[in-house]
Write a structure and sequence with these properties.
Transferase(Phosphotransferase), domain 1, Jelly Rolls, 4-stranded antiparallel sheet
Length: 352
């Protein structure tokens, strides 16, 4: 007969899989998933057979540099992982071994979070060995600091695990890739991994920041819930939607002098008239021209009114998308762009 702690561990493993008590008629193994008890064996559960590809195998097949499409696909997968973890956390269950081999990609976009063998109730101490010493459970290359120290865990431990998957994807290696098991556990205890700003400098800055926050040494500095992390990934994903096109009729005002610079516009079709204090400037921007960038980058009011001379189409770029794209370039290029924008704004206001 299993001891009570082991029964609890079995239940912790079965509940996230959606297991329920089997119907009275028929053996439980005939169903896709069942939870039951058998004399001479004790409690048990059965699971549906999952077929697909692990996230690890999917990552190994990718060519580097990573394409935009692959990046978006990974974020979509992790959003679903966050949803699955949110359900488990609502039951008080922590997975505690989030890593690429434990995520399965099925047909039609299905995502499965596998291997709940290390799962335990949040806030409970880790199991001990025969000598009474707490055990370090998890995978050394992606351990959260509290796991490496054999402390109690909570939902923020799984937050760290999802952040470590982002890190692995962007860096092409896990946070603690080499060394003995003891050395990696030691590094994990203090979150001593190379920052993504060094090992994945060209990766999207917003995604790097999400990973860094999720993997903070102190759980209090991380996303406090897995749903909060999922929301950040959702926001990142929405910001990567291509810039929407806006159609204007001849004579329609695109932007007004003095209003906030909420968007940058790239002219795709048509021509525009630019006026400062009611006086038209000699140039008429056309296809390829960028309008409104100075006001948005400098966070200053617009210095001119822009009106469509002909029917026109522009691409509208918001601040999140602009910052994301600036984050892709070298830091000195971003600094140069911002400096030039401030100079242009100062020049245009001083000359009036």
């Amino acid at each position: 007969m299993l001891r009570p702690p082991l029964v609890s561990a079995l239940l912790a493993l079965a509940l996230p899989c959606g297991c329920e008590a089997p119907p009275e008629e028929g053996p439980p193994e005939e169903g896709p998933c069942g939870l039951g008890f058998r004399d001479g064996v004790g409690p048990f559960f059965t699971m549906k057979l999952i077929e697909g590809q692990t996230l690890l195998d999917w990552l190994r097949e990718l060519e580097r540099p990573i394409s935009v499409e692959s990046l978006d696909e990974l974020v979509d997968v992790l959003i679903k992982v966050c949803d699955a973890l949110a359900m488990a956390h609502s039951l008080g269950i922590i997975h505690a071994d989030i890593k690429t081999p434990n995520i399965m990609l099925g047909e039609f976009g299905a995502v499965y979070l596998m291997d709940w063998g290390n799962a335990r109730i949040g806030g409970t101490p880790p199991p001990t060995d025969d000598s009474g010493r707490p055990q370090v459970l998890g995978t050394p290359s992606v351990l959260a600091p509290e796991q490496a120290r054999a402390w109690s865990i909570d939902a923020r431990t799984d937050v760290f695990g999802v952040g470590a998957i982002i890190y692995t994807f962007l860096a092409g290696r896990p946070p603690y890739p080499t060394g003995t098991i003891e050395a990696r556990i030691n590094a994990a205890a203090y979150a001593r991994f190379r920052p993504l700003s060094v090992v994945a400098r060209k990766a999207p800055v917003t995604l790097r920041k999400i990973s860094a926050r999720a993997m903070a040494l102190n759980p209090a500095d991380r996303f406090q819930t897995i749903s909060e992390l999922g929301a950040a990934l959702n926001a990142f994903r929405r910001a990567r939607v291509p810039a929407p096109a806006v159609t204007l009729a001849a004579g329609e005002v695109l932007m007004q002098q003095g209003e906030p610079g909420d968007f940058v516009y790239v002219v795709r079709e048509g021509t525009f008239r630019v006026a400062i204090d009611g006086v038209d400037l000699p140039h008429t921007p056309g296809p390829g021209a960028v309008l409104g960038e100075v006001a948005m980058i400098t966070d200053k009011p617009r210095t001119a009114t822009v009106t469509a001379i002909t029917d026109a189409v522009v691409l509208r770029i918001g601040p999140e998308l602009l910052q994301e794209e600036l984050g892709r370039v070298s830091p000195w290029v971003k600094t140069l762009v911002e400096s030039l924008a401030h100079r242009l704004h100062r020049h245009s206001t001083e000359g009036r």
